[in-house]
Amino acid sequence: MLTSTKHKGDVTRLMFDLSGEYLFSTGIDGQLLQWSPDGKSQLLYQDSKTISVLAISDKASSIAFGNAIGELFILDRSSKKIQARSKLPFGITGVSFIPGQNNLLVACGNLLEPIQLPKPTVIWDYVKNEYRHIRLGQYHGIRELIHIPGTKQFVQLDDQKKIHLYDLTKNSPLASFQIPKMGKGLTVSLDGRSLAANFDWHISIYNLEKKQPKCELKGHRGLVSAIAFDHSGQLLYSCSWDETVRCWDIALEKEVEVLNWSIGRATAIACAMDGSRVAVGSENGTVLVWDRN
Asked: What distance in Å separates the CA atoms of residue 69 and residue 60, rounded to the nearest whole number?
């Protein structure tokens, strides 16, 4: 197990590259860090603003990140230089690379300037620096957006307590789910079959194949701050302000393990795609990497 405190304050996002070898973290301190397997960190970018969203391209050659004042960046991983940047009049709440293209799917939240853009979800061609607006439903803002691996579909969580499943080629949702309270985050299994959403102390699971709710997971004694499926899609990891990480068996619909690593309130979590490691970030800037083997 590797533990290090490099961020100053909350860790906002964690994400492994496709190989599961390298981990990336962002924080309210404006830092973007790369972590090697031996636990050493390297600063890739530093800003004065909180980095709130993070995405890695399918070949892990580029990293996208943004903030709540609408700034977007594409970082070339090899040169560690910003290769593209842009500014929207919305806070950025979710980003995802579209595989095989120089395009980034961008979800926007609250309007920061009195400029009426058609819809709060856009596709950014970061080579040409051009935007294309996706005409989806009438939402006040999007709280989270994730792409479903191997498809042209994505899921977004709006601020009207609804989850919508979309296809990039269609304007209307393939499915919509109502959640009981305002959601905080989403995650999709690698096989694209299961979707999880966290809100308050609970987690809701949805079957994307049948386009229907599956179950609700309860056990945390504090706000569930982040969730992540493991590589199999059978296990879900969640972290919480109750200072625990919990592992859930989706098929059995129950908690199977409680982990307490004494790192304070947990704020971010990620699972390596090869299933070997789980990373957790906390409010005090700690990043912990657990080798499941």
From this structure: 26
